[in-house]
Amino acid sequence: MGFSTGYLTTREIKIWDLRRIGHTQSEIGKILNITRQAAYKALGIIDNKVEAAFNEAAKTNGFVVKKINIVDGIMEAYSPAHKIPVIVSLSKTNGLRVWYMHEGDCSVCVHHNSCIEFLLGEIKERKVDLTEEDLDLSPSNLALKIFEKILGDEKGTDN
């Protein structure tokens, strides 16, 4: 258990993920053979840990937090040092990761393959619907598409 997993135990990751994919507390209880009340209590603990991890990531990196969505594991922030928006995501696949929303020349970057791997993990785990053309984009542009869709879906559910 550590910063990269949002301080969540294996059991807590399972509970958090079940809620994230849409299960109610009662359904989580049935799936894990615990009471709804136990699921409720666990989710409260999980929410506190996830929020603490996001706040630590912001403090450590000097980010200005704009919005935290604990359930979906997404934090929108701004990096004054780099003068660009930042997305911090928490997922089972990638743990806690920072993505700087910039337009760089990804073809010459030594991190190209690891960025693609990270983004493909986010697409799969979050079930982001993209076209084949989208998947051929550079990591910077692909990230814009992915996070626009994730944040767009999130904003759509607030109304």
Number of strands: 4
Beta strand %: 15-25%
Helix content: 40-55%
Shape: globular
Strand order of the biggest β-sheet: 1-2-3-4
SSE topology string = HHHEEEEHHH
Architecture blueprint of SSEs:
Elements (H helix, E strand, L loop, with lengths): L9 H11 L4 H8 L3 H26 L2 E6 L4 E6 L4 E8 L3 E6 L11 H15 L5 H4 L3 H20 L1
Antiparallel strand pairs: 1-2, 2-3, 3-4
Your description of this structure?
By secondary structure, the protein is of the alpha+beta class. It has one domain. 53% of the residues lie in helices and 16% in strands. The protein has helices spanning 10-20, 25-32, 36-61, 112-126, 132-135, 139-158, and strands at 64-69, 74-79, 84-91, 95-100. It has a four-stranded antiparallel beta sheet, sandwiched between helices. α1 (10-20) packs across α3 (36-61), α2 packs across α3 (36-61) and α4 (112-126) runs parallel beside α6. The longest helix is centred in the N-terminal third of the chain and has 26 residues, at 36-61. Residues 155-159 have low confidence and may be disordered.
Features:
159 residues; alpha+beta; 4-stranded antiparallel beta sheet; 6 helices; 4 strands; 53% helix; globular
Short description:
With 159 residues, the chain is an alpha+beta fold. It has helices at residues 10-20, 25-32, 36-61, 112-126, 132-135, 139-158; strands at residues 64-69, 74-79, 84-91, 95-100.
